[in-house]
Predict the structure.
Amino acid sequence: MKYHHLLIFLILVISSDVFGQNTQKNRPANENNHAFRFTINTGVTFSNAFGKGTDKESNINGYPPDCYTNGSAGTHFILGKKIGIGFIKDLNDKFSIGLDINYEEKGSRIPVSFIWYEGKPQAIDEKSNIRLKYIALPLKLETRFKKMYVQSGIYAGVLLDADDYGTINGIYFERDKDSRYSRIDIGVGVGFGKRIPLSAKSILKLGINGNWSLIDNEARAMTPGDPQSWFNQSLNFEIRFERKIK
C-alpha cells in the first residue's frame, strides 16, 4: 500500500494553506530565535514492506526456493511502538533542526492460506508476523506555519532483533530471523502536525510522519520467479513533549 502519496499530498495542502502567513506574529510566546529544546516522544507505528513484488506471493517463510507462501509482505500492516528522546535547535523564527534517538518497531503481517512445497500446494492457516526492532536516529528539518509544522529528513537505524511469530493451524510458533535482515536501515521521512503551547517553556506536538527505507531489508530473494528484495515503510502517530532548556 503506497500511502506515502497521501501523506505527501496532505503536507502540500497544509503548506499551501498556511504558507506566506506572518509566522512572527502568530508564533507562540514560548518560541524564540535560537531556542534549544529537549524532547520526549512516544507513539505507534503501522508498517509493512514496499518494492516490486511485495504485493504478491513470497518465499519469505519458505526454504528451499521451491517452497513459498501465497502471502505478501506489502498488503497488511503490523502494529508497533516507538519511544525516544531528542534535541531541537531553532535556526530562526521559522526553521528548526532536530535529532532523535528512538526505539522503533517495523515489519509486516503475512496471512497465509497455502504453501507451495516441491511444486505442490498445501492448505494452511498461518498468521505470521515479522517484527523488526531498531534503534533509530532521525535527523529532521522542521518548518513552522502558525501553529502547524511540517518536517522532512533522513534517518539511520541499527537492527536490535528480528522475530517471526504467530500461529499455524492454531498452534503458536516463534522463529528467530536475525540473520535474514540487513543490520542497518537508512531512509527518508516526511511528516506534519499541530503545536500546542503549554507554558512559556513547554510545547506539546501531535504529529503524523512516514518513513521509507533506501536499503533493501530482506537478505534473500522474496518473490519466486522474479527475485526482489523488500524495503521498510511505516506510518507513525506520535505525541511529542518539548521543553526549552536554553
In short: The chain has one domain: 4-244. Residues 4-244 form a domain with the Porin fold (CATH 2.40.160.20).
